[in-house]
Amino acid sequence: MYRYFMEVDDKSSRAVFVPPGAGPRVLFGENDVGDLVHVLDAERGLACNLICPDCKGVLVANKGAIKAAYFSHQSRIDCEHAGETALHLMAKEIIEQQGWFDLPEARAWSYRRGSGYSYMPIRNTQRVHFTRVEVEPRQEGFQPDLIGIKEIVKNGRKVIGRLHIEIYVTHKVDEEKLSRFRSKEESVLEVDLSDVERSLSKLELTDLLLSNAKKKWLYHRDIEKYEAQLRARLEAEEARDREKRRDLERRISEDLKKREESLNSAPAEATAEQRQFADREEKRWHLIGCGHFLDSEADDRYFDVPPGVWRAFALAALAPWQSNAKQWIEDEREVDLPATISSALKEFGWVKSPFSSKYRKKYCDHGHELVYWDRAADEVRKFLSPVLNGYDYPSVWSETKKLKMLSSALRTKYDLLMKEHGITNSSSAL
Ligand SMILES: [Zn+2]
Question: 143-155 pLDDT, tens per residue?
Answer without folding.
Answer: 889 999 999 898 8
